[in-house]
Amino acid sequence: MEDKNNIELQEKAQDNNNNNNNNNDNNIIYQNPTASSSHIDSIEIDINYDLSNHIKQRVTQNKTGMFVSANNISYYIPKSVKKGESEELSKLYLLNNISFTMKPGRMILLMGIPGAGKSLLLKVLGNRLGKGKVEGELKFNNHEVDETTHQRDTIFVSQDDRHIALLTVRETLEFSAKCNMGENVSQEEQSERVDLVLDQLGLSHTSNTIIGNQFFRGISGGQKRRVTIANEFTKRSPNLILMDEPSTGLDSATSYNVISKVKTIAKEAKASVMVSLLQPSVELTNLFDDILILGEGGNLIYFGELNNLLPYFSSIGLAPLPNQPLAEFMQEVSVEPSKYLITDKIELSSNESSLLLGADGGNVEKMDLVKLFKESELNQKTMQSIQQLIPNDIKVSDHSIKKLETGDNGKSSVRYELKHLLARHIKVMKIMKMQYAVRFFQAIFMGCVIGSLFVKMGFTQADARNRFGLIYFAMVLHIWTTIGSVEEFFTLRGIFDDQKDSKYYRNFPYFLSLVITKIPISLIEAILFSSCCYWIAGFQARVDNFIVFILGMALTNLIAQGIFQVTSAFTSAQLLASLICPAIVVLFMIMSGYMISRLQIPGWWIWLNALSPLRYVIDMVSSNELYGLKFHCSPMELIPPSNYPLLNVSYANGGYQGNQICQYTTGSDFLNQFGFYDNSYMRWVDIVIILGFICTFFFIFFLGIKYIRFENKKPPRQIKLKKKKEKKDKKDKEVKHQWNGCYMTFQNLNYIVPSVKDNKETGKKEKVTLELLKDVNGFIVPGMCALMGPSGAGKSTLMDVLAKRKNVGTITGDIRINGQLVKDMNITRFTGYVEQQDILSGNLTIREAIEFSANCRLPSSYLQKDRVKLIDEILSVLSLTKMQNTTIGPNPTLGISLANRKKVSIGIELASDPHLIFLDEPTSGLDSSAALKVMNCVKKIAESGRTVVCTIHQPSQEIFEKFDQLLLLDKGKVIYFGDTGENSSTVIQHFTSAGYQYEHGRNPADFILEIAEHPPSTGQSASDYFKSSIHYSNSVQRLESKTIVPEGVDVPKYKGKYSAPATAQLHSLVRRGWLNHIRRPQTILLRFLRSFIPAIVIGTLFLRLDNDQTGARNRIALVFLGFLFGGMASIGKVPTIVEDRSVYYREASAGTYPAHLYILASVITDLPMMVLTAFSYWIPMFFLTGLTLGGHGWKFFFSLGVYLLVIMCYDSLATLFALTLPTIPIAILVSGVGLNFLGLFGGFFIPVNNIPRGWIWMHYLVFSKYGLETLSITELKGEPFYCEEDQYSKIPIAGTNFTQNYCAIQNGDTMLLQYGMNDAYGRQFYNLIILGGYFCAYTFLGYLALRYINHMKR
Question: 20 to 30 A Cα–Cα from 778, which one of 334, 446, 937, 1191?
Fold first, then answer.
C-alpha cells in the first residue's frame, strides 16, 4: 500500500528538497556535540508567529469567542421495549451526566477508552445528533444551539477521511472555501485562505495531486488526514473547534505541528477547542490546558486543568507507573485502576477508601472513579463556574446572536451553491472523460450493431414487427447503461452526509447538481446511438420523427436514472440496491405493452401498466415511427399461406378458392394490435407524461437524500454453535511441533519501479524510474524487529520485498533465509504476513476465521486435537477467547472493533504455525490502550521463539521498547540499523553522538521519527552518518562473513506450494462459502422475493393460458421473460463477488489454497442459490400460467432443469465479468451489455429467419439461443391450438359476398416455424449438453481470470 506514497514523495523530492511538509527545519535541533539547546522551545516558532500575525490582521477587536457550558448532559438513543417494561429501558444511554466548561483560548484534550463516547460527545457539541437525543443543559454563549448558524461557528473534524477521489487537494479545498466562506467573500480572499491552509498543513507540494483511492493513485493516508483537517479550517474566524482523532495516520512530529497551530488559532482567534487523540506524545499532551477523561458507559471520571490531573489522582490513591507517558495513564486508568494503586503511600478518608477499595475493602478493579470525581473539589468548582462562566464585562457575540440582531443567517444563495456544486461535478466528469468516452463508444457501437441487425427495414409484416422489437430493445439498452449510477450514489453518499452535517450547502442545490449533470450525458448517448441505429435501420427520414426518437432514448435513460437513484436513497447498502433496482426495472419493462399487449393485460394488473413509465416511452416512439406508414405482405406472409392445403379448394368444400389477403396494411393496424395510440399528436402527450414521471422520481429522490439517513452502528452478532463431535485422528502417532525462528539477511537491496512524471519544460508526461529502496543492508534474528520511518520512507515497501510480495518493479540484491536464497524457496509455507488492511470474511466468527486458516494451511501431520489446541492457544494469546463466537462483521462499525480485527488478522496468520511473521502497521488507527494490547500479543509470539518483522507508525514508548532490533528508513535509505538496547539506550546514543539533542524522558520513537521526518538542511545527512558508524561496519562485516546464521540451523524445505491436502482445503472453502450465504439472510430473502414476486406477477398476468391464438404467442414470451429475470438476478451478485475477491487476493498471496479450489467451492455453494432462484420463479410461474405438464409431468421437470441450466449460465457469466474487471460499476456495465447481446441474438426479438447473414454467427454463439429453443420446443411441439371467434382472419371469396374463416396458428409447429425453430426438433436434448458446456466454459474462464488477473497491485 505504501508504494503509492513512496512514488508520490519521490517524484516531488527534487523539487521540494528544501521545503518539507511543514516548511520548517526547526522541529529537530541540529547541533554539534558540544552545543546545547532546548527542544520544546524551538519547535515551529516562525510558522506559528506568521500564523499569529495573519490571524491578528483579520480577527475583529470585538470578537469574544464561544463560552460553552454543559450541565449534567446525557445522550441516549430511543429503543423499543416490551409491554409492561419500565420507560427507562426505552432509552439506551451512551453519555451520562457530564458537566464541563469550554472557554475561548483554552484547549481540552478528550481521552477515554474505546466505546466511552468521545466521538459522541464531540458530535453533541457539534450538533450532529443523528437519531439520539440530549438531556441536561447545554449552552453556547448562554443560548441553546441554533441549527441554522451553529455550523458556521464550529469547526468539526470527523474521524473519517471522505473525499472525492478524483479532485486534487487544491480543488477540494477551493470548494470547501467557497462553501464555508460564502458568496460575500472575494475570490482573492478565498484563494488566500486556501494557500494559507495548504502551507500551514504541509500540503503545498501535493496541491495538484488527486486525493485518490484504492483504484486511483493519489496522496498518502497521512496527507488525506490533513486534507480532512484543512477542509474545515477554511471557515472564517471559528468560535468552536472540535477534532475527533485528527492525528490518526500522522507521525508524532506532524501531529505536534498540526495541534500547535490549532493552539495558535485558539489563542489568537479566541476559539474554544476540544480534541480527542489516540496516542498523544508528551509534547502533544503539554499543548493542552484542560483534560476531560471519559470512562466506561460515557461517564466522566476527570475534568480539570492538566496541572491538576496528577495531584487529583494522587489524592484518590492512583499514579502513573515509573517512566510511563501521561497519555497512557489517562487512557488506561479507568480500565485497570488496580495497576496504578499507591494506597500504601497515602492516607485516604474512610469514604474515599470505601469508594476506592469497595465495600469489602479489596475489590480495586470495581472502584467508583465516577462517584469519586463527582464528590471532588474539582467537580464542585466546575459546577460553580458554569453559573458564572461569562465575565460581566464581556458582551458575547456569535452567528446565532448576529442572526437575532440582524435577521441574517449568513447563508449563501441557492444560485451560488448550485454554481459551485455544478463546477465541482463537471471537474470530476472531465477527469473521468475516459469512462464517458467508453459509454459514448458503446452507444455508437451498439447503435451500429442493432442498426445492422435490422438493416434497411422494408414494409413487410415482418419489418413492421421488427420495428417494435428494435424500439423495445433500444429502450432496454438505455436502461442498463445507467445502472452504474447506483455505485456512483453510494460513493458520494458518505461525502454528502459529512458536508450536509457541516452545512456546506443546502440539499436542493446538491440535488439539482446531480440531476442537471445527468441530462447532457443522457442526451449525448441518445444522439450518438440514434444517429447510427435510426438511419441504418431505415426508420422514417423525417426530422421530427428523428428528434422524437432521440428524445425517447434520452428520456428512457433519465427514467432509469430516477428509478436507480430513488432505490439507492432508500436502501442502506449498495448490495441491497443492486438486488432491488433490476427487479423494479424489469417489472416496468414487462408492463410496457410490448411483451404483452395492453389489450391482453388482466384487469387486476392494468394499473401497473398505467404506472409503468416505459409504457409511454414505447407508445411514443412506436406511434412516431409507424403511424401513417403503409405495409404489404411478402408472398410467404399472405394468408392463407401458399402451401396451405385448402387454399385452392372450392368454398363449398371449405376452401378459399385461391383467395389470399394481407391482414395488416397500415401502421395503425399494428399499433392497434399492441394497444398503442394510432395518431401523431399523442407522442407529444406521452412526452409530457414521461417528464412527469421523471420529475416524480427525482422528487422522491430529493426527499430521500433530505430525510433518510442510515446510521449503521450495530453490535456484532453472537453465533450459538452446536457442539461438534470430536473427530478421531486416523494416525495415533503424535507429531511434536516446535516454533523456531528464522534468520533473514539482505545485502545491497534495491527496488526500482516505473512511473510517469510531468516534464515542466515540455508540459508532456515522460517515463521515469523511481528508486524506492537504495542499498539496504541488514539482518533479522528471532525476536522483534521494527521497520520505522516517516510516511513514504519505504518501510512497507521493504517488508513487501522481503516477503516476496511485490508483483511490479525490479528488485536487485541478495535476500536469504537461514543462508538460502529466498527466490529458491516456497516462502509462504513457513511465513505469515499480516496486512495493514484487515481484509476478513465478515460473516465468520473469530474462531471460524482462525480455524479456516489452520485447516487450509496446516499439514496433515497435525492431529485434530493438536489443531484445536493450537487454535485455543492463539485465542488465549490474543485475548479473544471470550468473544470467539462473535461474527467479525464487514467493518468496525457493524462488527468487532478495529483492535480486535487486527488481532484476528494476526491469529489467521498464526494458525499456519509460521516461523517468520511480517506485520504491516499493526497499530494503525488504534488508541494507545488497544495498540499496547495488540503489541503485547505480538511480543508473546516473539517470545515463543518466532521471528517477527513489524512496520510501526508512531509507537508509544512502552511499545517501542518491546522491540529488539530497529531498521530506520528515510526515502528508501537506511539511517539506522541495529539493536535498540535496554530502554532504547543504544539507538538514543547513536543519534545523540551525531549531534541531535535528546530530552530525557521523551519517547525515543518520537525522537528518531522527527530526525527522519526533518533531515538537516546542511551538514552530514543521517544516512551518511550511519554509514560511518560502528553499527554499519559491524552489520556489513557480519553479513560478509556469514556469521549471522548459527551452525546447525536447518533450511526450511517443503514439497509443494500448499501444506494441507486439497480435500481439506476444499471442505473448508465449501463450509465458509455456505456460512457466507446463510449468514446473509437478508440477501437470501431478497433472492427469493426477487424471483417469487415476478413469478406471481407473470403467472397472474398470463393466468391459465388457453390454447387460443394469444396463448400460443404468449408461451414463447413467457420463456423469454424467465431469461430476462435470470439475467437480472445474475447482475445482483456482482457486488458480492467483487467484495469477496479481495479476501481471495489476500489468501492466495499467503498460499492458503489454489485458485481452482476457490472456484470449485464457489460453484458448489452457489448452486443452492441458483436452485433457489430458478425454482422460486419457474415453479409458481409454470402452474399459474397452466403450461403443459406432459406425460407423468416430464415437461415440467425437464423445463425446470433447462431453466436451472440457463440460470447457471447467467450466474457463471456474471461471475466471469466480476472476476475479470477491476471495479463494480465496470463489471455491472459490461454485464448489462452482455445481457443485451444475449437478448438481442437469442432469437426472440428477431427470429433467426430475419437475422442478417453477417450476424448469424452471433446467434449461434449466445447460450440464450439454446435455452429458448429447447424450452419453446418442449412447450409447443405438437400442441394443438384454436381460434376464438374474434381471432379468425376473414378471407373474402372473390365474386361472392361470402368470407371464409382462417385460423393462423392451428398447432405449435406453426409457431415454431415463425421463429425458425422447426428444424431444431432433434437438438432438443443435445442443447442440454451445450448449455452445460457454456457453464463449464464460463467457470473455467473465471478460474483463469482469478488465477492470472490481480487488481490489487503491490
Answer: 937
